[in-house]
């Protein structure tokens, strides 16, 4: 657990403290920006391998996330945000399986919380622009066709969901998955090491623990992509709910 709370590298004890977690995030951010700039600067009409991968991922976000929730026409103005969010979360999640980094940038609460609040501000702002403040609150908390006494129970629940539960659940889901994945990798690698150097008959089962560690690595790559997809998809869903004419 101490890996999530490392010692300061610079400015220890101040609000500007810089530690290994920030260093990992900075390295990943710079790497993604450099990679995307290189791909964009070398873009061709007939794409190469790297350009094809990037275009496939962008098209995936456009069609499977934006197209299936907001719609391609209405979602066009949110596409830059959602595509950036997907790539950013995916890259930060992959930090946990990159040798030398060994820590997902989203495995400490600050970054998942910041992303969730970005989502919150975006869908609330979009809803207010579309309906006005009171109109937005009404559209989110008072769906039509329900007997009016039910609203006494429904309105507080829906209001709590809009202002707290949505962004809190986004934060907790992303954070919990990245922390648990990191802990699983550490446990199986530690188990492999302990069995391998046990000096007893237990050394015979160390390959099985090692195979499990490799399997967890592969599973973590899948989870990194899945969590990026889920976070981005839910963001698009919340924007769609905020801007819809009627629920």
UniProtKB/TrEMBL annotation:
SUPFAM superfamilies (UniProt xref): F1F0 ATP synthase subunit A
Compartments where found: Cell membrane; Membrane
Chief localization: membrane
Transmembrane annotation, as ranges: 23-41, 78-98, 104-128, 148-168, 174-196, 208-241
Pfam families named among the record's database cross-references: ATP-synt_A
GO cellular component, one term: plasma membrane
Purpose of the protein: Key component of the proton channel; it plays a direct role in the translocation of protons across the membrane.
Name of the protein described by the UniProt record: ATP synthase subunit a
The species this protein was found in: Brachybacterium faecium (strain ATCC 43885 / DSM 4810 / JCM 11609 / LMG 19847 / NBRC 14762 / NCIMB 9860 / 6-10)
Gene name of the record: atpB
């Amino acid at each position: 657990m101490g890996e999530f709370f490392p010692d300061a590298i610079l400015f220890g004890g101040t609000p500007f403290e810089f530690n290994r977690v920030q260093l990992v995030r900075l390295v990943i951010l710079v790497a993604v920006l450099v990679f995307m700039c290189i791909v964009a600067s070398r873009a061709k009409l007939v794409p190469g391998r790297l350009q094809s991968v990037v275009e496939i991922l962008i098209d995936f976000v456009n069609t499977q996330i934006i197209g299936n929730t907001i719609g391609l026409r209405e979602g066009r103005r949110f596409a830059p945000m959602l595509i950036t969010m997907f790539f950013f979360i995916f890259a930060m999640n992959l930090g946990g399986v990159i040798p030398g980094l060994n820590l997902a940038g989203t495995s400490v609460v600050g970054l998942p919380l910041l992303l969730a609040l970005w989502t919150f501000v975006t869908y609330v702002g979009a809803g207010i622009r579309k309906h006005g403040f009171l109109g937005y609150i009404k559209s989110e908390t008072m769906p039509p066709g329900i007997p009016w006494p039910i609203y006494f129970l429904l309105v507080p629940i829906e209001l709590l969901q809009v202002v707290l539960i949505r962004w809190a659940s986004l934060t907790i889901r992303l954070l919990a998955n990245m922390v648990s994945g990191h802990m699983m990798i550490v446990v199986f690698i530690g188990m492999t090491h302990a069995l391998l150097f046990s000096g007893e008959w237990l050394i015979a089962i160390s390959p099985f623990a090692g195979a499990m560690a490799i399997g967890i690595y592969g599973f973590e790559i899948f989870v990194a992509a899945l969590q990026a997809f889920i976070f981005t998809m839910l963001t698009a869903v919340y924007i769609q709910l905020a801007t819809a004419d009627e629920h």
